[in-house]
Specification:
The chain is an alpha+beta fold. The chain has helices at about 5-10, 15, 65, 120-125, 135-155, 215-225, 260-280, 280-290, 295-305, 315-320, 340-350, 400-410, 420, 440-445; strands at about 20-35, 40-45, 50-55, 75-85, 90-105, 160, 165, 205-210, 225-235, 245-255, 310, 355-360, 375-385, 390-395, 430-435. It is about 30% helix and about 25% strand. It has an 8-stranded mixed β-sheet, sandwiched between helices.
Length: about 475
């Protein structure tokens, strides 16, 4: 007998298993009894969206007394024979011969019923929400994308790099960072004690990382091509549907790549991942298209099949100003593009993905390469329909004198970043990279309105449960 076969494998190989004995294990979604003396159990093991219908005769002595204890949420094992199903919407079913109850769920207190629950409610029971169709599908897509990301970079000669979670660097310079300390915040150092960090674990200010980019540059200038894929943290007091305090970032960095190379890599990357969802997550994608976002499949197909439009920031501002559209945020050269501007460009103006390059120098961090006009830097954003910006990156400033000028202009301590400066003194080379927020990607390929559904345990202001 086949031991513990996944339900997804049964549905993918109906002909191979029909008429054969199997064992399946999972959680009961529903159970109903017919007047004909048959109990129908909908069983799901998380391997796919579909549930397997188990047909159990109420008179079968092998499990007759047990059936009354099987409730929604119970974990069970069923042994039986796979047969063709006469019911609509399912090719096979399982004729139960033996049932074992692993764990009972009290129907009076089990919170998941056969109905649609709000996402707000499900966040309160994050230990059970993966059992729902939506979060289960998100989890499978997230897993498949993770594998595809590693595969994409491995095929292109990039080395996977683990950058530190605890760091003394604030990469973005925004100051929205979580401090790491072993000191009791309720009993600060006494006045006149000197260095307030002398008794702290690292004897200096330390933070949770907001980006692994700067450390990735170190290894790119030694190994050539590297990428990071790890957790990052930002203490931004925002409760919008686009922000999390803890999220995962993918950050490739490549030596001898200029802005055009970087743009090509980002374009190929997003096309590849959209194709993965279309080709390898068909069942879950159909679910999202049906229940979450009707235009989802067509958006992904547009990303895969359409050439990317590339315009400068200046051209983007000009297009937006001449569009006649009334935006909430005014469009002025020198102001950052907002989500409404980005979506207008990609959904209305070009109706395809858009790469925007050469942003104002004043808008961007100190490490971006200054263009010859001295007003802009070699930065890039990738915009996609339904989301707006999904990738941001730049060519890095490899010239020592220009980097020092940028640091002074931005108020960045040269001494604190001495190691970064030395990279420009000892064998400096052109290099580029970009960042992609993984949850933003998951949100894009699933059509979810709120990024909190794109991560297993969302961390937002005032919420750090589980």
């Amino acid at each position: 007998m086949e031991k513990g076969i996944r339900i997804a494998d049964l549905f993918g190989n109906e002909g191979e298993y029909t008429g054969k004995p199997v064992r399946v294990q999972g959680w009961v979604r529903t159970r109903r009894d017919s007047k004909a003396g048959i109990s129908f159990i909908e069983l799901n093991d998380g391997s796919c969206l579909k549930s397997l219908q188990v047909v159990a005769g109420l008179e079968n002595p092998a499990y007759r007394d047990l059936l009354e204890k099987i409730t929604n949420g119970s974990a069970v094992m069923v042994e039986g024979t796979v047969s063709a199903s006469p019911g609509k919407g399912q090719a096979i079913e399982l004729q139960a011969e033996r049932i074992e109850l692993y764990g009972w769920a009290d129907p009076a207190t089990y919170p998941l019923q056969k109905k649609r629950h709000s996402f707000e409610f499900l966040r309160q029971i994050a230990h059970l929400r993966p059992r729902t169709n939506t979060i289960g599908a998100v989890s499978r897509v997230r897993s498949r994308l993770s594998y595809a990301i590693h595969r994409f970079f491995a095929e292109r000669g990039f080395n996977y790099l683990h950058t530190p979670i605890i760091t003394a660097s604030d990469c973005e310079g925004a100051g929205e960072i979580f401090r790491v300390t072993t000191l009791d915040p309720l009993h600060p150092a006494a006045p006149g004690a000197g260095n307030s960090y002398q008794d702290d674990f690292f004897a200096k200010p330390a933070y949770l990382t907001v980006s692994g980019q700067l450390q990735a540059e170190i290894f790119a200038l030694a190994l050539g091509r590297v990428y990071t894929f790890g957790p990052t943290f930002r203490a931004e007091n925002s409760n919008t549907s686009r922000h999390l305090a803890e999220f995962w970032m993918i950050e490739p960095e490549a030596a001898f790549y200029d802005l055009e190379d970087n743009l090509d890599l980002a374009r190929d990357f997003i096309k590849n991942l959209a194709a993965v969802v279309l080709n390898e997550c068909a069942e879950d994608l159909d679910f999202f298209t049906r229940f979450i976002e009707p235009e989802l499949r067509s958006r992904l197909e547009t990303v895969v099949n359409s050439p990317f439009e590339v315009i400068t920031y200046t051209e983007a501002v000009d297009r937006l100003q001449k569009s006649g559209e009334k935006f909430v945020y005014p469009v002025e050269w020198g102001n950052d593009l907002q989500a409404e501007h980005e979506r207008f460009l990609t959904e209305k103006v070009f109706q395809r993905p858009v790469g925007v390059i050469d942003f104002p120098r004043s808008l961007k961090p100190f490490y971006m390469r200054v263009n010859d006009d001295q007003k802009t830097v070699g930065a890039m954003d990738i915009l996609v329909p339904g989301t707006g910006e999904i990738i941001g990156g730049s060519q890095r400033e490899e010239r020592l004198d220009v980097l020092l000028d940028q640091m002074k202009l931005k108020g960045i301590s040269i001494e604190d970043y001495r190691w970064y400066v030395e990279l420009r003194q000892f064998g400096s080379a052109p290099h580029s990279g970009f960042g992609l927020g993984f949850e933003r990607l998951v949100q894009f390929v699933t059509g979810l309105a709120n990024i909190r559904e794109a991560i297993p345990f969302p961390r937002t202001p005032g919420h750090a449960e589980f």
